[in-house]
Amino acid sequence: MKMNERMEYILNEFDNMFPDAKCELEHSNELELLIAVMLSAQTTDASVNRLTKTLFQKYKTVEDYANAPLQQLENDIKTIGLYRNKAKNVKAMAQMLIDDFNGEVPCDHEALQTLPGVGRKTANVVISEGFQVPAIAVDTHVERISKRLGIARKNDSVLEVEKKLMKKVPKERWIKTHHQMIFFGRYHCKSMNPQCQNCHLIEICKEPKRKHYLLSR
User: What mean pLDDT is predicted for residues 158-167?
Assistant: First the structure.
């Protein structure tokens, strides 16, 4: 199967499985989205949503985060992992928004990455979800799925995976496909115990263990 045929097959299957896939981090504006994504590092979206349900009621503006005592902010987010470092970054990020961006979250990939605690993946999520600018954020799910389905090579870096996805997935589908890949990795093709027995993409899977499953059927 040629790569363009493989990609069309994968995207069609994603559409069948997850037609309504979307960002599961709850937010009502770009600032809340940015903070939710920053908090989600090495933490589940469900855990972040439980936390932000009260956090976003207490902190309404960028000034609220910038002016909050660090120990208080740490205490407010201590239910998630790496909370001390995340609190420090959120506070510093808020102050930088005030100082350099008139208190607004910038709709610019490079500008976002100048903010404390904001890397390429976080910036991609914010510009795509918050501003509807086409982008593909490569998290652990997207990286794993890309390599298992042969979209990227096993030893490709995260940036190389992103570039290959951007090349092989139609630009108008970048945001949708990003969410579908996360759903596929989170709920179906899990890192441990993937649901191979119910997978319509098993025939093109590159994972050695999946090949063993095919031979045993």
Answer: 96
Name the residue range of residue 17's domain. Answer: 1-217
Q: Structurally, how many domains does the chain consist of?
A: 1
Catalytic residue among 139, 164, 168, 176: 139
- Is 121 part of the annotated catalytic residue set? yes
Query: Rounded to whole angstroms, how far apart are CA atoms 171 and 134?
Result: 7
- DSSP, residue by residue, 13-73: HHHHH-TT----S--SSHHHHHHHHHHTTTS-HHHHHHHHHHHHHH--SHHHHHHS-HHHH
Residue 139: active-site member? yes
- Selecting among 86, 91, 121, 164, the annotated active-site residue is 121
**pTM for this entry:** 0.91
User: What CATH number did the domain enclosing 90 receive?
Assistant: 1.10.340.30
Average pLDDT value over all residues in the chain:
93
Q: Is 117 helix (H, G, I), strand (E, B) or coil?
A: coil
